[in-house]
Design a protein that fits this description.
Strand content: 5-15%
Number of helices: 7
Distance between the termini: 43 Å
Order of helices and strands: EHHEHHEHHH
CATH class: Alpha Beta
Shape: globular
Number of domains: 1
Largest sheet: 3 strands, parallel
Number of strands: 3
Strand order of the largest sheet: 1-2-3
CATH topology: Rossmann fold
Radius of gyration: 15 Å
Length: 124
């Protein structure tokens, strides 16, 4: 493995979608480096897959779960991302809301929100 690289959303998207001339370059980056996928970048990928490419929420959840489990992948918040992807696939909440709920569930931190849907889940 070469050095560690922090992935931008466009590299992840080209790798996952295989829909562009840059997809081959994304493959090389993914296969030849240790990888870091920051939580904020994962949020952008989820948004683009759903809003731009109309990928079903369950499929987004499954594809990103597999991607985040690549052997050379590091994420600073693996339990938060995993919990958020699970919730996102089974709910209608925005992914950022799913992140906050996962933070509450995995880290025990209180979430201050006025969002009624979030409050229902947080109170369980």
């Amino acid at each position: 493995m070469d050095e560690t690289v922090v992935l931008d959303a466009n590299v992840i998207l080209r790798y996952l979608l295989q829909d562009h001339d840059l997809s081959a370059e994304a493959d090389k980056v993914i296969k030849n480096h240790n990888l870091v996928a920051r939580t904020e970048v994962v949020c952008e990928v989820v948004y683009v897959l759903q809003k731009v490419y109309s990928v079903d929420r369950k499929e987004v959840s499954e594809v990103l779960r597999r991607f985040m489990n690549l052997a050379q992948m590091y994420n600073p918040e693996p339990a938060v991302i995993a919990g958020a992807l699970d919730l996102y696939g089974d709910s209608r909440l925005d992914f950022v809301d799913c992140i906050l709920i996962a933070v509450n569930k995995t880290e025990g931190l209180e979430i201050a929100t006025f969002d009624k849907e979030m409050l229902k889940i947080l109170d369980n």
